Amino acid sequence: MENEESTSYLSTGELSKILNVSVRTIRYYDQIGLVQPSKKAAGGKRYYSKEDILKLQKIILLKSLNLSLEDSRSILAEQSMSAVLLAHQSLLSEKMEHLTNSLKHTQSLLNLLDLKETLHWEELIFLVANAEKERDWNHYFSIEQQSHLKSQLPKLESGDKTTKKWINMIKRIELCLEKGVSPISLEGQIILEDVDILSGETFGDNPELVEVFWEVRKSPEESRELGLYPISPAIIDFLEMAAKKDIPSN
User: Fold this and answer.
1) Which candidate among 64, 112, 170, 212 keeps its CA 20 to 30 Å from the CA of 38?
2) In which region does residue 227 sit, left (phi positive, over 0), alpha (psi from -120 to 50) or beta (all else)?
3) How confident is the model over 181-237, as pLDDT tens digits?
4) Among 78, 81, 13, CA closest to 47
5) Cα→Cα distances 28→11, 25, 33, Å
6) What is the DSSP-derived secondary structure letter of residue 62?
């Protein structure tokens, strides 16, 4: 009898090996009435039909989508394929969002490391914890200005060329400060000219926006409040002193 049964059905042990699911899990699904064997031998041995096996495969699939057993039970009762696909779509969207945020955090850290050469754990924790906070820009900029800035400003989480240009500009000024190069020197004036060129690329022909934004950037507190990388006062002083130099006309 058992040989006849085994040709059409699978025992718990056989099913466990084929589907790579523990015997304990299969028995648990049986106990809670989720997937029960179609036949039981006199000695208590359980046999699963093709329909039972398919049902168990469905449960395994739904479990891989992070659905609870109760949700899986409901979906199986409804026989709704759209529910399965929607659940799968939702899970993929969550994973994509998580990966996108992880990539942004990593790029931000790489850019910060490029700027500072050394990072401390406290800075990393602060950056990641505050990356998703909502920022209130209404106190500083008009709606039109906000729209322009949010689309054009270089971002730490970006690996684009504009962000890299600004990072390199800051590093050039830091090198000048380390070497004691004067802001009114030829090198200081070339840096100022390059800053003006970059500002034009970022802000366009809008000197009012440049002035308002520069006032915000001079404040480390306001920069942090808006989620912007704070520029050190020494760099700001360098640029302001370079801008005050009277360049004689030819």
Assistant:
1) 64
2) left
3) 999 999 999 999 999 998 888 888 788 888 888 888 888 888 777 777 778 889 889
4) 13
5) 15, 5, 9
6) H
The closest of 211, 103, 107 to 155, measured between CA atoms, is 107
pLDDT digits (tens, 9 = 90+) for 143-182: 888 888 877 777 767 778 888 888 888 889 999 999 999 9
Cβ neighbours of residue 112 closer than 8 Å, sequence gap 6 or more = 119, 123, 127, 156, 229
**Of 220, 196, 204, which Cα lies nearest the Cα of 144?**
204
One-letter amino acid for residue 5 of the chain: E
Cα–Cα separations (whole angstroms), residue 185 to 83, 99, 173, 188: 69, 46, 12, 5
| Residue of 228, 176, 173, 165 whose CA lies nearest to 198 | 165
Residue 167 CB neighbours (<10 A): 17
C-alpha 223/C-alpha 41 separation (Å) is 74
Q: Which pTM value belongs to this model?
A: 0.53
Tens digits of residue pLDDT in 53-104: 998 998 888 888 777 888 788 777 776 667 667 777 877 787 787 777 777 7
Confirm if 112 and 184 have CB atoms less than 8 A apart. Answer: no
Those residues with Cβ within 8 angstroms of residue 159's Cβ, 6 or more apart along the chain or in another chain: 107, 110, 111
Helix (H) or strand (E) holding 48: strand 46-48
Looking at domain 2-78, its CATH architecture is: Orthogonal Bundle (1.10)
Tokens 């109760």, located at residue: 70
